[in-house]
Amino acid sequence: MYTVILQAIGLATAAWIAYLSQPGSSLFSWHPTLMSFAFLVAMPNGIFALSRNHPLYASAKLSSKVTIHLLSQLVAVSSALIALATIITNKDNNKADHFTTRHGLIGLITCIAMVGATSGGVLANNAQLVKAFIKPAAMKSIHAFAAGCAVYPLAMTTIVLATYSNFLVSALPIAYMRYTIAGVATIMAVAVYVQVSQRGARKTVRAD
Ligand code: HEM
Fold first, then answer.
1. Which pLDDT tens digits describe the chain residue by residue (208 residues)?
2. Which residues line ligand 1 (CB under 6 A)?
């Protein structure tokens, strides 16, 4: 049940950020809107779909859960890459330097790591292609660890850093409200970390 509550909190926060950004009002507006949709809505749906006790997916076959995971991650990665392209183009249009803030730099690292973890997911899903080099189970564990314990916490750190941006501080009616967004990002990062590490622990117990 807690997965549904977390997803609802992620959805509400992404909707709040979209409301503050007014998507369509400028090229920039798509950056926060699509990034928060990617990392607070689509990606958690893909990750929690694999959870054992998700009320919506509990009775689904593993193959269906994997399909939901794949489609959700495809949507998340596409949205994040479009959001990255919009901020880079927007900065180019304004003749501004790139990756000069902590948010921009960690955000770039997040996007590169996301592409790496996604490639690992594609290999994990087609493990027979690489089984001469790496065992399928190891490939899956590496993908899960890279995505859940590296990419997702990095993405949430980037969102926390975004709460210090002039844009968000001036868009919020009370600047301290940014701590709500930062708090949600922290809770989501911890929840995803716990889910991924529990799956890893279950697999280790089964292997014993
Ligand atoms: C995990 C999600 C996010 C990622 C990966 C990300 C990534 C980035 C990157 C790479 C840049 C630098 C682009 C450049 O310098 O050319 C940037 C800039 C920016 N982002 Fe994000 N972003 C995310 C979420 C957000 C959110 C939610 C907001 C606002 C609510 C936001 C606001 C900004 C602003 C104001 C800039 C321009 C100033 C700066 O470079 O720091 N971003 N973002």
1. 789 999 999 999 999 999 999 999 999 999 999 999 999 999 999 999 998 878 888 888 989 999 999 999 999 999 999 999 999 999 999 999 999 999 999 999 999 999 999 999 999 999 888 888 889 889 999 999 999 999 999 999 999 999 999 999 999 999 899 999 999 999 999 999 998 887 665 554 444 4
2. 17, 31-32, 35-36, 39, 84, 87-88, 91, 98-99, 101, 103-104, 107-108, 110-111, 155, 158-159, 162, 165, 167-168
Query: pTM of the predicted model, to two decimals?
Result: 0.93
How many angstroms separate the alpha carbon of residue 130 from the centre of ligand 1? 35
Q: What angle do CA 30, 113, 67 make, to 5 degrees?
A: 80
Instruction: Show the domains of the chain with their CATH numbers.
Output: 2-207 (1.20.120.1770)
Hey, which of 28, 87, 186 would you mutate to test ligand 1's pocket, going by the most ligand atoms within 8 Å of its Cβ? 87
Position in ligand 1 atom list of the atom nearest CA 91: 16
CA distances from 193 to 25, 105, 154, 198 (A): 35, 22, 11, 8
DSSP symbol at 97: P
State in Å: Cα 35 to ligand 1 middle.
Answer: 8
